[in-house]
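Budget justification, computational time. The allocation requested in the original proposal was used primarily to generate structure tokens for proteins on the priority list. As evidence of use, we reproduce two of the resulting records. The first is shown immediately below.
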Amino acid sequence: MEKWYLMTAVVLLGLTVRWTVSLNSYSGAGKPPMFGDYEAQRHWQEITFNLPIKQWYFNSSDNNLQYWGLDYPPLTAYHSLLCAYVAQFINPDWIALHSSRGYESQAHKLFMRATVLIADLLIYIPAVVLHCCCLKEISTKKKIANALCILLYPGLILIDYGHFHVSVFLKIKDILPHHVQIIVSFCLTLLSLLPACVKLTLQPSPKGFRFTLVSCALSFFLFSFQVHEKSILLVSLPVCLVLSEIPFMSTWFLLVSTFSMLPLLLKDDLLMPSVVTTMAFFIACATSFSIFEKTSEEELRLKSFSVSVRKHLPRFTFLPRIIQHLFIISVITMVLLTLMTVTLDPPQKLPDLFSVLISTELTSANPPLLLRKTGPELTSVPIFLYFICGTPTTAWCAKRCHVRTQDSNWQTPGRQSRTYT
């Protein structure tokens, strides 16, 4: 019975943190004419409620795709429709066709935040609690601690309850034709996820399934045709599921994944919520899993890697200390870069300096997270690849590979993009 009291307290704490973050600013607040992703969510409710289904995804006089055209799968559209029915009951002006564009008020902000919170209460939070309760390898105390850390992961909270998501798009049309890009992306994604899926099929296990989720999520993030900064959440959420198996590496990854979204979080005045939620998450992980005490080769899942290296370098026994020092350097660098970004103006000739430094830190701070497992579990999951090539906010790439950071929208046919530097 005590277990459920504690789990209830964890859920209430997670809800409190979410609602506190929701009191802050959001994407595009008071920034006409396009506003931001907050307006995109509202506009999708307007479109799905006022237009027949066959017109949702097509350009028309009532559905200008250049103004936040609906470009997510039908499940998202139906969710918007459900929210629109509630909005119509409360205040029809919120979703009135055409006239509601750019609608902003405290009452509407409360409604929009509530739609996210209710969705979490109905779907995400019960799934987290069920997952943690079903873990057989750990004690009840660790199950509750696991739920606490997952529910306090700042990346998801800041995006869902603060920002409402800004996207980026990598334009390499001058290097490869459009149709070739799609084929190459598909082939690379398939090839990168195939080994883990094959092994899981031949040797299924719950733990192997969780690690395979991480591997497949990384494959889609690294090689997908369209990439935006929120995509890292597709990897971060599976990593949350392996917190109890590899607490040190998982905590490191989740901290850096949140830091990778710093430019877009700063853009919407979410610095304070970012700092507070990140510190709370780190403290929860450090105290719940004693992450600094679990840095041996076995606990880091690097024993196989170390053994293979020692075949050539017999005295190579200091890998755990290297990992610990890299973690400390990584955290210090993230703090310094945050302070520099907030307090200093970049040189006029180098306007993207801080974005480049953030990307450089992410590259240099790649934890060698090779999850060397045996038996039915995953053989190798190179999570460190994210830090090497998964950062979309890189000005260096912008100059050499024609990368442009887009303000709050997917780059889809018929949609007008807005580029800022």
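The second record produced under the same allocation is shown here.
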Amino acid sequence: MPRKTYFFVLFILSCFFCLSGLTGCMGGGNEQSAVATPSSAVNGDSIKKIKDLLKSEGSTEKFTGTVLIEQDGKVLLREGYGMADQAQKIANTPETRFRIATLSEQFNALSLLLLQDQGKLTLNDPICTYIPDCPATWKAITIQQLFVHTSSIPDYLSLGDYLAMKAKPTTPEQLIGLFKDRPLLEFTQYRTAYNAANQVLAGYIIEKASGQSYGEYLQSTIFNPLHLTHTSYVKNDEPLPAYATGYEQPGIVSDPIDASALYAAGGISSTVDDLYTFDQAIIQHKIGSKAVGDSLLTIHYTYCSLSQSCGPSYVSLGVGYGWFIGREKGENGLTRQIYYDNGSYEGFSAANIYYPEQKLSIIILSNVKRNPITIGNEENFIENDLFASA
């Protein structure tokens, strides 16, 4: 399945739904697709349980980051946990900025739809319209395919050439050069995988179509109009405590990386509050035409449905532009609609989740690439403990 793999996210969701009575506990269930009945009341016990576990995990650095849970405009939880910088003993707070890793694609998708709104491109345009010396193998690939993960362009993040250059200032052309001449992948190899190469190309197309640099376009078209005052295309010289330091594991600082080497595949930093504002602008059609928001949150490629197995967690699942869209299984055949995206890279991980039927937002930003809470026996311990208590 796509990237919704953090058990920590699963814990928070299961705790919330099981105890608040919104839609039944996560997991289990049969293949029915009855729609869950939303509840406007939130049981305070669910939030208390989440707070207690987050406080415990934060005190031992098993989770470091910031969590926001908000329902229909009401803040249920907004806290920082653990250290933004362990060496300097600077704590994470709700105002701490984190690199948002692959959530950057949500901003890229919105940018391209706004450019389409302005008549400067269409998502059906071949990407080669905007890329000089485009390989012949890319001629049939459209902009849309960059976001529904069907371009079959290979990724580059594990290539030795990229690993050698990522700590240095890098141009978009240099990044594209890493994968430009590599053969396309077979369909089954990339079908549900996030691909940083797609987002690099999206950023480059944004520049060519807008006539601005990637960062300038985001700032003038999205960040400023939406008053995202704590969101930026990351600069390397920003002082602490504004930004969290990234860790591969608690105590192990992530390798240095220049923001330009991340580019459109992860170079944006933000806070949980700004991401909530961003989400609500899309949901409430506060930016661009109504068609822009609708297109972002409409399935354009279906991974699985009732006629195909979606695994234990979903009745159906597909991808919009920058968002995965599905129906999760609950208890007793109930289901709930979910919009989400998440990912991790270079010392940071992030999850952006919205349940439209419950008007429930859950946003998690962490300055650890892979938290120990997600792996090994701890996962089973937490899962068993939570479901037993529910």
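A brief technical remark on that second record: The domain at 7-389 is CATH 3.40.710.10 (Beta-lactamase).
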